[in-house]
Design brief:
Length: about 100
């Protein structure tokens, strides 16, 4: 239970208010979900040696762990491949894309 009292500038303190009803704190569980960028639902073509950004919206509570894969293998960060994930988005950036990055 919680109680509250007040103190004014003359240092006079009120009697505490009556107790609150019980307060229950619990984690809200929300299943993980992914919403692909609209453009990722169709075949995308990019010129070679350009930078490609693949993006998605993510949601869930607790915050989900995001794993990007290519050909059923986790994508490894490198000087060319980077990933930026926030509470709501996850983006993979591929620099100097080549035909080998197709998938």
């Amino acid at each position: 239970e919680f109680r509250v009292s007040a103190r004014n500038s003359a240092a006079v303190i009120s009697e505490p208010a009556g107790p609150t009803f019980p307060v229950l704190c619990k984690d809200e569980l929300v299943p993980a979900s992914i919403k692909l960028d609209y453009n990722m639902k169709e075949t995308m073509q990019f010129p070679a040696e350009t930078t490609i950004t693949l993006g998605t919206l993510i949601a869930g509570m607790p915050a989900p762990e995001v794993t990007w894969t290519k050909d059923n293998r986790p994508m490894v960060r490198s000087s060319r491949v980077d990933r930026v994930t926030t509470k709501r988005t996850s983006n993979t950036v591929i620099k100097d894309a080549s035909r080998a990055d197709s998938g």
